[in-house]
Amino acid sequence: MSHLSEHLRQATPVVAERGEGVHLFGTDGRRYLDFTAGIGVTSTGHCHPRVVAAAQEQVATLIHGQYTTVMHQPLQKLVERLGDVLPPGLDSLFFANSGSEAVEAAMRLARQATGRPNIVVCQGGFHGRTVAAASLTTSGTKVRTGFGPLMSGVHVTPFPSTYYYNSRYGWDEEATTRFALGELDHLLQTVTDPSDTAAIMVEPVLGEGGYTPANSAFLQGLRERADRHGILLVLDEVQTGVGRTGRFWGHDHFGVRPDIIITAKGLASGFPLSGIAASDEIMAKARPGSQGGTYGGNAVACAAALATLDVVEDEGLVGNAATQGARLRSGLEDVAAKTPAIGDVRGLGLMLANEFVTDAGEPDPKTASRVQQAAVEEGLLLLTCGPWGNVVRLIPPLIVSEQQIDEGLRAWSAAV
Ligand code: PLP
């Protein structure tokens, strides 16, 4: 009998029959509060009526056009619409299907635009599972092991928060930021010469790496070094974009200017769509034919993205992520205060997580996993992350209400 391959082990036993808003309904007849949002994808909730209507209408009008052959209206409209939310000057867009593909597109573009080979990434970063994206990923070994050699020209520099959150050195944020930038300078002096370095790629909040936010001083430090050496600063906003952190882009918290921005996940509420944005000057340096793909910028996905952006604006979802994120965080902090096994509560907006630790302060993936399973019993779906899998994250859809946050917190408290 055919079956799904063994390595695709499910984090929960739930088989979803249908989704509605923040809920999934299982074939077991139970209703679950989905605080995974399909790994941060269903920004407007499951099957938002406006997203459904836009997709249904588009399916009946034009499913596929392929932008290098014929242009279609949903893509043209999406390009225009994204102009309202992208940082000034990042006017030139390219679309693909997944986060990994967009990461690869950004990497290819950075190499072509600068004529330089090397990419600097941050320790703990996650950029995807295609071979090049996995080469840029250091959130854990499982994404990189067993199919090498990986792409060369990748250099890793510290990400400050991963040091102080884990309290390994007992340093504070300022000291770790100074350390991380000092290590980057050292890397640029001794390992990859700046004149060989095309890009520094970083997530505003490490996602799969453990939900650790960057800080302004660190990102400004990266910007300053990028400017000094003609390196491009690439922000991977695949998980942090489209309102997830309580601002439209994760980097809006830190006032840093990217050269290339990567988006996916929440952009189309579950339809596969990703993209990169850069200035005309940078994008013009991509060689014709080097970027593209059969399905990228699919018409139905673009229509869903347009509806998603309308819902995000009309329903004030960025503000809701900030407001409900603060409520969720405060509830999580209350639970953590009574729970020695939770060593840290962190994140931004509705991108929040709890780090589970042993009495000795070591990562405790077993307890994290037990809490995740117990939460399922309580009707709450959660995911783990982090290099050791000891971080349990809560990423509800951005439409989540105050009552649903409280319901989630009751389930969380019971599970813990
Ligand atoms: N970049 C970041 C920051 C991500 O969180 C992810 C996925 O979790 C990716 C890239 C890869 O995206 P995808 O799984 O759509 O290829």
TrEMBL record:
<dbReference type="InterPro" id="IPR005814">
    <property type="entry name" value="Aminotrans_3"/>
</dbReference>
<dbReference type="InterPro" id="IPR015424">
    <property type="entry name" value="PyrdxlP-dep_Trfase"/>
</dbReference>
<dbReference type="InterPro" id="IPR050103">
    <property type="entry name" value="Class-III_PLP-dep_AT"/>
</dbReference>
<dbReference type="InterPro" id="IPR015422">
    <property type="entry name" value="PyrdxlP-dep_Trfase_small"/>
</dbReference>
<comment type="similarity">
    <text>Belongs to the class-III pyridoxal-phosphate-dependent aminotransferase family.</text>
</comment>
<dbReference type="InterPro" id="IPR049704">
    <property type="entry name" value="Aminotrans_3_PPA_site"/>
</dbReference>
<keyword id="KW-0663">Pyridoxal phosphate</keyword>
<dbReference type="InterPro" id="IPR015421">
    <property type="entry name" value="PyrdxlP-dep_Trfase_major"/>
</dbReference>
<dbReference type="Pfam" id="PF00202">
    <property type="entry name" value="Aminotran_3"/>
</dbReference>
<dbReference type="GO" id="GO:0008483">
    <property type="term" value="F:transaminase activity"/>
</dbReference>
<protein>
    <submittedName>
        <fullName>Aminotransferase class III-fold pyridoxal phosphate-dependent enzyme</fullName>
    </submittedName>
</protein>
<keyword id="KW-0032">Aminotransferase</keyword>
<keyword id="KW-0808">Transferase</keyword>
